[in-house]
Specification:
alpha+beta; five-stranded mixed sheet
Length: 438
């Protein structure tokens, strides 16, 4: 069940709009009193206005002390409906057009709280207004002033009630529709802003990486070559040989890091062929098992072998995707766990799903997940997922991430079926045993 979420500033706006509305009613009452009506006849408006000011003061107090803004928004809406019902009663009941004020409560609930809240408010407004009108019609509730009592047929009564109810629910529908579109637009704008920031950082990281890597790679190769030559030419003791091995091992590690920088910054020419993604992933897993990273503590599950998925793309790029995602999953499961890979194919797109049973992602990690040089692991360089993101963007694909702390992470990559640009023919739909993708 989805819970309503209300922002703090929206609760404040509800209080401010209420004060403005009540003040407008009081000013109107004063003008009417000065013009044509004796003070005693509109005294209830002043009393209700004072009550509304008092409630607004309490709302402001709760606003500063309370953190349950959704609860406060619902409470304010409920008391607003009671206030409007009292105002309708004192201003004429069935004959009063002030029941239109219910509409403002419905609009406020839809804009501030949620679509569901708009319909709940409309329903409660309909109940309160219906009870008031029925009570007055059947003389269960006395009229506030004798002159408010009029003879009204049952048909006129039902017409009044149905007209009011219809207006409440029509407004609820329109407001909820507009509010939902507004929320979606805001979410899309927020995602677009994040996408722009990430792409700007990717571009900057690419420039820095290329410049730095080229400056380091050649001297490092010279150092490694010199150490290998000295190791083969000199008579070294056991301890000296260990030191030489450490130098070579660290040189290779730095060289790998530089290659990753260069792959990230300047991917180089891509050769597109029909790639067997199942075999490519299996090769990657074998390499990681051989290196000891993917040990017996880890279980690899899923349909990736049976799927036998083929895709028209660059084998090297998919190796980078698999390498980075598998290594990230290994790091997320320091005590071992299950890594699940499922391949699904359709005529329009393929879907690659990677799920681990690791520690999951925090809110901060999710916010910076694909940013270069940001790593959720202490020894990471923060380029693995940034590289994955760049490659998926090259294929005009999408990445969806789901994660809960302590329950693991699921990353789903969706890629459109590509055309054979070199030959001008369309690639065959990818073959897989994994079921359809829309």
């Amino acid at each position: 069940m989805v819970r309503d979420k209300v922002e703090r500033r929206n609760v404040l706006w509800m209080i401010i709009v209420r004060l403005i509305t009540v003040t407008s009613l009081l000013v109107s009452a004063i003008i009417i009193q000065i013009s044509v009506v004796p003070a005693s006849s509109i005294a209830p408006v002043y009393y209700l206005g004072l009550i509304a000011y008092g409630l607004s003061g309490l709302y402001l107090l709760f606003y500063t002390l309370n953190r349950s803004y959704t609860v406060q928004a619902y409470v304010q809406t409920f008391f607003d409906l009671l206030f409007i019902t009292a105002f309708v009663y004192t201003s004429g009941g069935v004959t009063s057009a002030t029941y239109a004020l219910y509409i403002f409560a419905v609009i406020g609930a839809g804009l501030v709280i949620s679509r569901r809240a708009a319909f709940l408010t409309a329903a409660l407004a309909a109940i309160l207004f219906g009870l008031l009108v029925d009570g007055l019609f059947f003389r269960i509730i006395p009229y506030y002033r004798p002159e408010h009592a009029i003879d009204m047929g049952l048909g006129s009564l039902l017409f009044t009630i149905l007209t009011a109810w219809s207006s409440f629910f029509v407004i609820a529908f329109l407001v909820s529709y507009l509010a939902e579109n507004l929320r979606r637009t805001r979410q899309a704008l927020s995602r677009a802003q994040k996408e722009l920031i990430i792409k700007e950082r990717l571009a900057e990281a690419g420039r820095v990486s290329a410049s730095l890597a080229h400056e380091i790679r050649n001297p490092l190769a010279a150092i490694a070559g010199s150490v290998q030559f000295l190791r083969s030419e000199l008579k070294l003791g056991h301890e000296q040989r260990e030191l030489m091995e450490i130098v070579l091992k660290e040189s290779r590690r730095v060289s790998q890091a530089i290659e990753q920088f260069l792959d990230f910054a300047s991917p180089g020419p891509r050769v597109f062929t029909e790639v067997n993604l199942s075999e490519t992933l299996d090769e990657t897993l074998k390499i990681l098992r051989g290196s000891g990273e993917l040990g017996r503590r880890f279980e690899v599950a899923g349909n990736y072998k049976e799927a036998d998925l083929h895709y028209f793309g660059s084998a090297n790029q998919f190796k980078q995707i698999f390498w980075n995602l598998v290594r990230n999953a290994i790091k997320a499961m320091p005590n071992g766990g299950t890594f699940t890979v499922d391949f699904t194919a359709g005529r329009r797109a393929i879907r690659l799903r990677f799920a681990d049973t690791g520690k999951g992602l925090s809110e901060e990690d999710r916010a910076h997940l694909f940013e270069p040089f940001y790593s959720g692991f202490g020894n990471g360089r923060g380029l693995g997922l940034a590289t994955v993101r760049r490659i998926v963007d090259d294929y005009e694909g999408q990445i969806e991430v789901r994660s809960e702390m302590g329950r693991g992470t699921e990353i789903t990559i969706t890629l459109p079926v590509r055309r054979r640009a070199e030959t001008g023919t369309e690639a065959e739909p990818p073959a897989a045993a994994g079921g359809p993708v829309a």
